[in-house]
Amino acid sequence: MTLLNLNQADLSDICLIASDVDGTLTQNSKFSSNFISTLLDLQSSEIKVLLVTGRSAGWVSALVNYLPVSGAIAENGGIFLQPNGQQDLLSSVPNLSRHRILLENTFHHIKQLFPNLRPSTDNQFRITDWTFDVDNLSADDIQAISSQCQQMGWSFTYSNVQCHIKPIHQDKATGLSSVLNNHFPELNSQQVLTVGDSPNDEAMFDPALFPISVGVANVRHYQDKMLHLPKYITQASEFAGFSELAKLFLQT
After folding, report:
1. Domain range list for the chain
2. Spatial separation of the C-alpha atoms in residues 108 and 208, rounded to whole Å
3. Which of 42, 59, 114, 190 could form a disulfide with 47 if both were Cys (CB 3.0 to 4.6 A apart)?
4. Where do the H-state alpha helices sit in the chain?
């Protein structure tokens, strides 16, 4: 359904928007001039915004300190960062240094099958996952890499910018559910709206977990590759689509 079908009664109950970043809050890979003003308008309307991104803990620790948001989940559900500097590890990683070595070894194993893979530049800022660039990978390549990860005891996902090797059961929905239970216990699932644009957001589109979800229009690029699709889709792509959603909140 399009955003035009979004029930105003549903909107009136929403207290928190959990949003992806790249391809959802960005426009052409950058934050636009009205990005912060939109966040401030939502904040003034007592709508909390929580970032839920695949980006590294290092990158996200900067975002959460500079943006008017209530916190941020980084690395696809791996770690929660708060504006006060507190960090909660959401994924069970008993030995972080060994964990990083195992992730890197897995990447090099996959690279033997796909020699052109390039590790992402932000791996040095990551804690729970390992990433490489998604450029030039076909749908068949993605499926083969995902199968390799599963065989080696890892899970796998990808977005419009990166591929992620990560612990089993680590995903955005699991991380978000944990954060909501521990830090926003006053909210129920009907008061949370999830927003995203690509396969690593799919878990947040599961109606059994989050019944009210929105995809910005560019999510249609992946609709034949995802089991769960957002309940509503904006007319515009990327941040223009998020802005479309925000205006509905501000009108309500």
Report:
1. 3-91+170-251, 96-166
2. 37
3. 42
4. 8-13, 35-44, 57-66, 96-113, 139-151, 172-183, 238-251
End-to-end CA distance of the chain: 19
Pick the CATH number of 96-166 from 3.90.1070.10, 3.40.1160.10, 3.10.180.10, 1.10.530.10: 3.90.1070.10
DSSP 30: B
Cα-based distances in Å from 158 to 6, 65, 138, 232: 28, 26, 12, 22
Question: Which strands form 130-133's sheet, in the order they lie side by side?
Answer: 130-133, 162-166, 155-158
Q: What is the reported pLDDT for 4?
A: 66
Residues of the chain under the 70 pLDDT cut: 4, 7, 9
CATH architecture of 3-91+170-251: 3-Layer(aba) Sandwich (3.40)
Give the integer Cα–Cα distance in Å for 85 and 91: 18
Report the half-sphere exposure of 189 (CA within 13 A, side-chain side).
Answer: 14
DSSP state letter for 156: E
DSSP state of 233: E
Amino acid making up residue 86: Q
Q: In the 8-state DSSP scheme, what is residue 211?
A: S
pLDDT tens by residue, 70-87: 999 999 999 999 999 999
